[in-house]
Task: inverse folding
C-alpha cells in the first residue's frame, strides 16, 4: 500500500525484453534505499513494482504483460522521468489517501492552464472509470494522490499547487500525454459488493503477444 505522496523523481535507465515481458531498471535519484530489501514494493508512476535487484543507485523490477497492457508503462523509454514512492510502513503518515499501486486505466491530459501560481489540468479518463470519479473525491495520477475539483462526464479537473509541481513529474506534462489512473479503493470495492451473485460470473479480458510485438517488446 502507498499514500500517493511522491518521495522522489527517478528515471528509467533501461527497459529489457525478458522471457515475453520486460525487465526495467529505475534510477531512484534522492529516494533513500537504505531500508529497501529484495522483494520490497516501490510505486513507479503509480505502478507497484517489486525490487528484484538493488545495484545501489536504483533497482531492477519485472513488468508483466498485464501491466504493459493496462498502464502507460508501454510509453516509457530510457530517460523517461518517473514518480517514486516506497510502500507504507506502520509508522508512515497517511498524507494522501490509501493507494494500492494497481492501475485501473490510462487517462489522457487534454488541457492545461495557469491558475495564479498553480496549474489547472483537465484529464479524460476511460469511460468505464468515470463512475468512480467524484467531485472533491481522491484520485491517483501517475502515483500522485490528488483531489478532483470538477467532473464533466469522463473528464475531470485538478488544480496542482507549486509544491506538487516541483516534487513530481507533472511539470513535464503536455496535452496528449497518457497517465496512469487509480480510482478510490472504496468506490471500486463497493461496486464489486453491489454486484452480489453476479460477481462470480466470468469476464473475458485480452492481452496478446501481437500487442507486445507491435510495441517492440517481443521479436516477431
Result:
Amino acid at each position: 500500500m502507498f499514500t500517493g505522496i511522491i518521495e522522489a523523481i527517478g528515471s528509467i535507465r533501461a527497459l529489457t525484453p525478458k522471457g515475453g515481458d520486460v525487465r526495467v531498471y529505475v534510477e531512484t535519484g534522492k529516494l533513500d534505499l537504505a531500508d529497501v530489501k529484495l522483494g520490497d514494493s516501490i510505486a513507479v508512476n503509480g505502478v507497484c513494482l517489486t525490487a528484484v535487484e538493488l545495484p545501489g543507485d536504483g533497482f531492477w523490477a519485472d513488468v508483466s504483460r498485464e501491466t504493459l497492457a493496462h498502464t502507460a508503462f508501454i510509453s516509457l523509454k530510457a530517460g523517461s522521468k518517473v514518480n517514486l514512492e516506497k510502500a507504507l510502513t506502520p509508522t508512515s503518515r497517511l498524507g494522501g489517501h490509501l493507494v494500492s499501486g494497481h492501475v485501473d486505466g490510462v487517462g489522457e491530459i487534454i488541457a492545461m492552464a495557469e491558475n495564479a501560481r498553480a496549474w489547472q489540468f483537465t484529464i479524460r479518463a476511460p469511460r468505464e472509470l468515470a463512475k468512480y470519479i467524484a467531485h472533491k473525491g481522491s484520485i491517483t495520477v501517475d502515483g500522485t494522490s490528488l483531489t478532483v475539483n470538477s467532473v464533466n462526464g469522463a473528464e475531470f479537473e485538478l488544480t496542482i499547487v507549486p509544491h506538487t509541481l516541483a516534487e513530481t513529474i507533472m511539470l513535464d506534462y503536455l496535452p496528449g500525454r497518457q497517465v496512469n489512473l487509480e480510482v478510490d479503493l472504496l468506490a471500486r470495492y463497493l461496486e464489486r459488493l453491489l454486484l452480489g451473485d453476479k460477481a462470480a460470473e466470468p469476464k473475458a479480458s485480452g492481452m496478446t503477444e501481437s500487442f507486445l510485438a507491435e510495441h517492440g517488446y517481443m521479436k516477431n
Q: What stands out?
A: The longest strand covers residues 8-18. The mean pLDDT is 89. The chain has two domains: 8-86, 105-197.
